[in-house]
Amino acid sequence: METTKRIINISGKFGSWTVLEKQGKQVLCKCDCGTQKLVYSHTLTNGRSTNCGCKKRKESIPVGANFGRLTVISDIEVKGKRGELLLLTLCRCGTQKYVSKNSLKRGLTQSCGCLQRDSLKTDKTIHGHCKSHEYNSWLHIKRICYNKNHHQYKYHGGCGIEVDASWRDNFTQFLKDMGLAPEGTVISRIDQESDFAPGNCLWIPRKEHYRQIHVLRRKELFISQTLPKPVVTNSEINVSPNIVRAIIKDHANGEANMNKLATQYKISTQDAINIILHHV
What we know:
By secondary structure, the protein is an alpha+beta fold. Strands 5, 6, 7, 8 and 9 form a 5-stranded antiparallel beta sheet that branches. A 4-stranded antiparallel beta sheet has the order 1-2-3-4. A two-stranded antiparallel ribbon has the order 10-11. Strand 1 and strand 2 form a beta hairpin.
């Protein structure tokens, strides 16, 4: 890429950034919106950093947009306690609530909370399985996919595994697709790289499930023990160890398209190439 050869000069432009001052590996930049921020030099030259984030924040959601039971009723964005952007929505049940803009766009929030309450109410009054193994399994796969504090999250949600939208807030549909669990079985995925979804899950003996977990952890340990230390070059790799391991694994499984890997893990193509060159 030509951008990797660009020289950083004072007053130089990189997207919306204007270079103000060099500070070692970092550069003090000013965004067109007025925000000043220290940015790593290589993220400027390889095109990974082009603005302070204002461009993404400006991607508005119009009034009237629907997300499940929610309808956006104001396009005025409000900052939440953790700095997240919130939009005022009206739920189908009549409740007005500020909801994370990012959660709406990702489909993680579909109601003010009434959807889950209705689902639980329906579960208790209709299917009668609220204390069953099937119900606990349904809760379990949601926890390991979305609860970052769960000890199994890093093997599931941390790897991008999700619960299919048709199951996420609907135990009745989950039970219809999976059926009753035979005695001594637990839920498992057929394709371990894919989501918990209809057609990709089945009930397997508990011992077989424990064997799968043991194999998974042995692979993780093997990768962590055999992963060489990064080679320091002129083009430094500023990528988390988890992404490095994931890219190496995909490459070992036959993926040779660096552009595809870069897009999948949201890094530059040059970083993907450097990971393969210096870690394999």
